[in-house]
Design goal:
This protein is an all-alpha fold. The protein contains six helices and no strands. The longest helix is centred in the N-terminal third of the chain and has 14 residues. It comes from Bacillus cereus ISP2954.
């Protein structure tokens, strides 16, 4: 059973909160606007491959834990 955007976006928020980071801190660390991060976390918008990798790297979490490939519309090996 596939998880909804809302369910998967909750994973990103949960991980961010587990690491005691605010959206502002994540924004500053990734150079991704706060509004964009809120939209990704709430499932209002998807995330492109570059941003998904940036968030994954900053949080030190695998892409697969944070996002479904269908949400960032790119193969993991694409650069």
């Amino acid at each position: 059973m596939a998880l909804s955007n809302k369910t998967k976006s909750t994973v990103l928020r949960k991980v961010r909160e587990e690491k005691d980071l605010t959206v502002r801190e994540l924004s500053l660390g990734t150079n991704i606007p706060e509004n964009t991060l809120y939209s990704i976390e709430t499932g209002r918008s998807g995330v492109n491959a570059k941003r998904a990798r940036t968030i994954s790297t900053y949080l030190k979490e695998p892409l697969e834990r944070l996002f479904e490939s269908s949400l960032y519309h790119a193969k993991l090996e694409d650069k």
